[in-house]
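Box S2. Input/output pair 1.
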Amino acid sequence: MASFKELDVFQSAILMVKYIYDVTAKFPDEEKFGIISQIRRAAIGIPSRIADGASHCTLKDRQYSIDIALGALNEIYAQFLVAQELQFLPGTELKRFERGYDTLRPKLIAYQRSILVCPNS
């Protein structure tokens, strides 16, 4: 099995993190320790869980790591909806995020379904 770094889903997750950092840099400064921090933590959690899952030998543990990554992606979506309501995020950026979400989510699900054997065996 290839290193997690070579997985398309991991590389897509890294692109999502870069996008999230760019977008949240435009949020109000007073949100630095609020919604910005929350969104960024969730974004970093996606590639982190992919890497973590690659190190586990049990099917259940590996798939659970991807469950957490999927949860983090949904968390970002919810926070972007809140950010739009608070007028921190223009509708055009929400649409852009949704396109990325609609690309990354199926990749995470497909990767989770593909996990069958221990990479360390």
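Box S3. Input/output pair 2.
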Amino acid sequence: MRPRVLSRLLQIQRVLVKYGLDEIILATHLFRPLRFAFYLSPATWIHRDRAGSRGERLRLALEELGPIFMKFGQMLSTRRDLLPRDIADELEKLQDRVPPFPGTEARAIVAAA
């Protein structure tokens, strides 16, 4: 695995652990080589308060991971037949209530000029 890919996978894993979405790490084959890092991480040793619903934690994680992940969440929110209702309702918030990400303002100014 390339260092850049490994670095991004570790970053994704860190965000998922931060929001208490550990079951995604344990269930996904991409993270199988990195499970040792999950078990060795001090974040998994301490009790984390899982504030918020499962859908809210997923939405916040997607927002933190960046625009590609937010687009993925937007796409999933349109497929209510594939998701539990609580997750679909939270991901629907990605349609029109997304905070701007860095670089958006500069592109808008250049496009307006």
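Caption for Box S3: The chain has a mean pLDDT of 79. The chain has two domains: 1-49, 52-113.
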